[in-house]
Amino acid sequence: MRFRILAAALAGIAFTGAPAAAAAEPDFSPDRIRAHVEFLADDALEGRNAGERGYDIAAKYVASRFQALGLKPAAAGSWYQQVPFLEYSLGEAPRASALGGRAFANRKDVLLTGSPSEPQQSLEAAVVFAGYGLDAPAAGFNDYRGLDVRGKVVAVLTGFPKGTPSEMGAHLNAEKARMAQKRGAIGLVTIPTVADEKRRPWARRVEMAGQSNLTWVAPDGQPFMSAPDIRVGGTLGQAAAEALFAGARRPLSAVLAEADREGGKPKGFALKPSLKVERQSVNRRLTSPNVLAVLPGSDPALANEYVLLMAHLDHVGVDPKLSGDKIHNGAMDNAAGTATMLEVARAMAESPNRPRRSILFAAVTAEEDGLLGAEYLAKHPVVDGKVVGVVNLDMPVLLYDFSDVIAFGSNHSTLGAIVGRAAAGMNVKLSADPLPEEGLFTRSDHYKFVREGVPAVFLMTGFAGEGEKQFRDFLATHYHKPSDEPGLPFNWNAGAKFARLNYLIANEIANGDQAPLWYRDSFFGQTVAPAAAKAERSAR
Ligand SMILES: [Zn+2]
């Protein structure tokens, strides 16, 4: 007895280290995840639409949780970074666009949006078909080769050629408007491929298209447009697409059939009909906050580097057109991700071993409107320092005890090794993207930080075991529908497990001697951060 006390006293450093090391593995509570989800996805929050009361109540809830954890407000002493938005929608008639003299109705034959910059627009232009509309010669995509699209509208297929690595394809797909602008085009219309039409039939596309669109407004008052010279955009249903290909060098059916084959890249050519658009747009200003908190890093040498743990707080609100339940509660999308973020924040804030780097916790707005809150945060930093890595949480499907995850982004940077260790330590396997056609890599908030050069990772619960059935059923039956609500058969233990996994990842990023680096051979590293220091893939 005496000896052991003496030994403990002598080995003081080791002794104080041991309980701390044990405490570094906090417990993650299914009940806390459940409590957050049941509040945030309650009918009282009215679907948390950005700019509306329900979202503001959700924001207040998150800010209160941050405060209770002893975190610091991150936006100049406030929990809120107010994001100014411009909402634009189509005015009353005419809501039609003409192709070769035939008129096509909006929300029936075509999907058009309002314009943030031209309240009254009357435009007629020649149209050029440009394959998938991809212009990245180094990666083997040359859809504009030999085409003159200056002053014209380009018509392109949705998505990217079958067999393209999914994250690269998703990125290139998201760049199409900028690629068209670079070639001098003034408009971009898309034609769904056979695969896309199967995945998201036209009727569902129309149903999911909102009545209005949002963009954020820069401090100089200008609404942000990623490709401001692209004055018109839209999606064509089958009849409109057929009309556009009237008298074409190659029939639309042949083009679509080629695109449906592995590696198929239909070549472009000029089309005969011109496109005429007459539209009025109605604009409205509104604001909605990102909710931001900081846990200061414990290592003075690294505390000005930040790991961003992010989840979108908004969902799509109430749809008055529906009969019965009109409230899109967004329990999985994304009360579940926000709950995960709050549980990781609690674990980190209460741990005696504070992370070495600072952590920025962000519940961001207007994800559903195009990743806008995250984009605003990426372009208008609030912290005095640098975000060096992002862990994003969006719609974990917490209906089953997942045994694998898909780690989007992890193949491109040293985050991959961190994710691998964290997952292995929990006996969770890493799987390849089972839904490459969904382009998920660019469809959540981390992508806006990737575009600014920051390595990021985004975990999706995997397809092993019952995962595939549960995930696909969720997408088909509940995704962006009022039935995505707390009454679904949640597996709250899976929520706690998902929180632990993301905690381990964020914590290791925050504690590593070296901030995350893109791999030298990564398409993303080369594209979004050409000048940044790189790591060799073999250097693990
Ligand atoms: Zn969503």
Topology:
Layout: H1 2-10, H2 12-23, H3 30-40, H4 53-68, E1 72-73, E2 80-90, E3 96-99, E4 102-105, E5 110-112, E6 120-129, E7 135-136, E8 141-142, E9 153-157, H5 166-174, H6 176-182, E10 187-191, H7 194-199, H8 202-208, E11 212-216, E12 232-236, H9 238-244, H10 252-259, E13 269-295, E14 305-312, H11 331-350, E15 358-364, H12 372-379, E16 386-393, E17 404-408, H13 415-425, E18 429-430, H14 446-450, E19 456-461, H15 467-477, H16 492-511, E20 518-519, H17 523-528, E21 534-535
Parallel strand pairs: 6-9, 9-10, 10-12, 14-15, 14-16, 16-19, 17-18, 20-21
Antiparallel strand pairs: 1-13, 2-11, 2-13, 3-4, 3-13, 5-12, 6-13, 7-8, 13-15, 17-19
The chain binds zinc ion (ZN).
Zinc ion binds next to loops.
Q: Any overview of this molecule?
A:
By secondary structure, the protein is α/β, with parallel strands linked by helices. The protein has a domain at 90-283: Glucose Oxidase, domain 1, CATH 3.50.30.30. It is 32% helix and 23% strand. It contains 17 helices and 21 strands. It has helices at 2-10, 12-23, 30-40, 53-68, 166-174, 176-182, 194-199, 202-208, 238-244, 252-259, 331-350, 372-379, 415-425, 446-450, 467-477, 492-511, 523-528, and strands at residues 72-73, 80-90, 96-99, 102-105, 110-112, 120-129, 135-136, 141-142, 153-157, 187-191, 212-216, 232-236, 269-295, 305-312, 358-364, 386-393, 404-408, 429-430, 456-461, 518-519, 534-535. The protein has a 17-stranded mixed beta sheet that branches. It has a two-stranded antiparallel ribbon with strand order 7-8. It has a two-stranded parallel sheet with strand order 20-21. Strand 3 (96-99) and strand 4 form a beta hairpin. The longest helix has 20 residues, at 331-350. The chain is globular, with a radius of gyration of 24 Å. Residues 333, 368, 480 line the site of zinc ion (ZN).
